[in-house]
Amino acid sequence: MTVHGSIGFSCGLLFFAAGLSAQSPAEDYAQNCAMCHTIGGGPLVGPDLAGMSTRRERAWLVRFIVDPQAVIDSGDATARALVQSYQGMVMPAIPGITPERATALVDYVRQQEGSGGAAKTGQGAPAALEPFTPREVERGRALFSGLAPFEAGGTACIACHDTGGLPLLGGGSLGPSLTHVFKRFGGRKGLETWLASPPTPEMASLYRRRPLTEQEITALIAYFQDRAAGKAKPAVHGGFLLLGSAGTALLLFGFHLLWRERFHGVRARLVRQYRTRGVQ
To answer: Helices 99-114 and 25-32: crossing angle, nearest 10°?
Structure first.
């Protein structure tokens, strides 16, 4: 990298960092917290944040917001109890988070409690009150498997995830199985907020600029509810490995046939040449 390139890269990082620090706590909360938490509106994917400053020490809250996994790995009993109570789910770290931003978020939540909980609800799509229809379930299945594209052009879920009962080779294994995600996220409300604004870096990179529509979210939730209802067969992994092994075996067998014919053809010519020269 040239000197000018290094300077430009460094300046870009500085501008990026400045943009993050200039973000207000309210914007920070809306972008990174509201899809999983409420302030006085009940638990979603994560716990209700109302009263958190009285339940936890301020320093602990800041440390946990900055690096949740590090606090869990340290053996902290409170953090591990939270993970256990939410079925093993770990809060993802906020991209670019600093202790200063985390402190501002803690203060913002406390202010919202004092103002009567102005941020009670998350940013998810409205909860559907009517039972899901078979058509919505089938629509969700098609969206998940990529048979029907997302309107904004987002990647099909099957590229990284699996659910029980998928035909042929099943789904991807880069992400966790979503067979029981409906129960794991606490039902419709939790999934709606998560799918409307995915907080993890991997999901955000795929869907933040290509968000799902409310109808697509509803269809996917209908499909996940159907999978979680015990109607799905267990996911079968290893299909790609078996297919690859079979393909490799066929390829090697084909090479064997080609080489054998070539070997016999070359050997036959050599034998004829030697016989012509009188070599028996």
So the answer is: 90
